[in-house]
Every structure is written in C-alpha cells, then in structure tokens.
Amino acid sequence: MQPVKPVKKRLVTCPQCQSVSEYSVENRFRPFCSERCKLIDLGLWADEGYRIPQPIEPDDFLEE
Known about the structure:
The protein contains 1 helix and 2 strands. With about 60 residues, it is of the alpha+beta class. The chain has a domain at about 10-50: Erythroid Transcription Factor GATA-1, Chain A. The protein is flat.
C-alpha cells in the first residue's frame, strides 16, 4: 500500500479585492474570497461595467 500524498491547497487572488483565498469545494464563492466580492462583480456585469472598448466590425469575425 502506497502512502497517501497530502493535497496542496490551491490559493488564488480574488478578482475583486486581490486578497488570497483558497480555491476549493469548501469555498463556495470561488474564485472570489467572499459573497460580498462575488456580488460586487455580479453588479458590474448587470450594470454593463464590463464592455468591449470599441464596436465590433464585420471584418473582426473570422470566416470559415
């Protein structure tokens, strides 16, 4: 029987506040550190805070 290797914790930076949090099943807000940061990000999406800086032109699409 082989010994079980300990699992390393995967730490990530919260996209909202830049604090370090664990990326695991136990962190239900992942990749965010908290519900607050998750809701702030959701609000930015809802208010169209994330936008493409210029209009998309027909030439921007690849033709197959």
